[in-house]
Amino acid sequence: MDKQLIPDTTNAEQVNHLYPSLPISARLNGEELHGVHRGGVENITPAPARQTNMSSADMSSVQAQLDMLWKQREELISINNKWADQYKVMTQYYKAKVREQQPSAKTSQPTHPLNEEMCQNGVEQSVQEKDVKEETSEEKIMSHTDAEQLRVQNAHLTRRGQHQHEEIRRLNQALHQSLESGFVWGESREDPKDNVWKHQAEVYKEDFLKERKDRERLKGKLMEMEKKYRKTHSELHTLKSKRRCQDQNSQDQEQIYTCHGEHHTYCVKVWSAFEQAYVDHDPCQVPPQAYDHLLSIAPPLPKYNWTLFWSGTREVAHQMSGGCYQTLEDTMLGSVLDGKTWCGKQGSNETFDSGCPNWTQCVNNPVRSFWSRASAEFAAVACGDAAVLLNGSSDTPFDPHCTFGSIEVKNFTPGLMKSLTVVLVTKDNVGANCTDESLKNLQKELKPGMKYICKEKTESELLTCKKNQDQSCVPCW
């Protein structure tokens, strides 16, 4: 094969950036766009009465894509032309080779069979012709193979060219629609659906704000009504307690009179409830709850603003009580049972006043359980301003283990009892004062809403005040 007749194919190089992928949104049909050419969109004239909604950045992007597609189209056409030229040159080359072989085959046949020399030459020529035919056959096969490869490549490049034309048409269509959209350049075009969603969102927002405002208003009214209710309930409870405390004296006198009069039904009822707590029971197995029924029939009714508690000051407290101040021992049950001892025994219906366990012998003995339960009830119904006399001569005026510290303080009723005045009783101003640490613990034990007051008084001052006290019941502290 003559190498000089084979065309040079080194210049037919493949271009790598021919066919970039385009976004789907840019693939629009553009058959109706007029005046689009490789130079860009300079020759496109939009309708005079219309404007576009595309921004300058979007227009630049479309222009860049158009330029790139035109450049790829020119490269594709150039490659197609080169392949076509090469195909024509190869076709002419192989046709010339075939024509050259045909005359040599015809002249190789013998014209004089009798001439031995000529026959010998004919045999030699036949061998040469066979060799030439084989070589020609191989060359034909190679040429057909090359031609087939060229046709495949040409078809592939043709399809790519068609794809480029379609992309150009789509971009032209998109540009044409943007120019004829009728909106101002640089302004955003709102979708009607977006407007609907925005309107619905605004309606929902207004409804939510209105409902929240209504809820806040109703909540404010509810809180105001609850505040008024609590205030009214507290005032009503205070008035009832005051009325009950003011009527205590007359009720106690009536009950005592009933017990000593002809109609002693109430007295019998109280005595029966009293015996029910301890009769026929182990004297060390009588809990404070055993006297619940008794105290429900004959509850302690303290005086309003004159309830007096004591701890370690029994004698002074009882000297101050009576008339104005009232201790637990001044109530009906307290006055009857103060200083008494009683108990029962299993298997017996009698009440015994001897052979009973003392105060410390067992915790649940009849006497100790009664005073524990009665003290809790007396503290629970204390109303108004109350006072407590503490022993200022003691190292710990407020003992959390005594009856006042362990029972009565823990049963004060907030709202019913307004304040507690602590009176430290000393002898000749010798002893603790209101800054004592135990009194700070007492102040912490009081429930919220109770006012705490502390005063220091000598025993002589209190007794002198009580002696000079008239019916006006002026406080002595």
Structural commentary:
The protein is an alpha/beta fold and 477 residues long. It folds into 2 domains: 155 residues; 222 residues, ADP Ribosyl Cyclase, Chain A, domain 1. The protein contains 12 helices and 4 strands, in the order ααααααβαααβαβαβα. A 4-stranded parallel sheet has the order 1-2-3-4. α4 crosses α5. The protein is rod-shaped and about 165 Å long. The chain starts with 55 loop residues before the first helix and ends in a 9-residue tail after the last helix. The N terminus is likely disordered. One of its GO terms (molecular function) is NAD+ nucleosidase activity, cyclic ADP-ribose generating. One of its GO terms (biological process) is positive regulation of B cell proliferation. Its EC number is 3.2.2.6.
Q: In the CATH hierarchy, what is the superfamily of the largest domain?
A: ADP Ribosyl Cyclase, Chain A, domain 1
> What structural class do you assign from the helix and strand content?
alpha/beta
Largest sheet: 4 strands, parallel
Determine and state the CATH class of the largest domain: Mainly Alpha
What count of domains describes the coordinates? 2
Unreliable residue stretches: 1-52, 109-116, 183-188
Count all strands and give the number.
4
| Shape annotation | rod-shaped
CA radius of gyration: 62 Å
The helicity comes to 40-55%
Q: What is the CATH architecture annotation of the largest domain?
A: Up-down Bundle
Number of helices: 12
Strand order of the largest sheet: 1-2-3-4
Overall mean pLDDT: 77
Query: What is the straight-line distance between the termini?
Result: 141 Å
| CATH fold description of the largest domain | ADP Ribosyl Cyclase, Chain A, domain 1
Q: Tell me the fraction of residues in β-strands, as a range.
A: 5-15%
- Would you list the SSEs in sequence order as H and E? HHHHHHEHHHEHEHEH
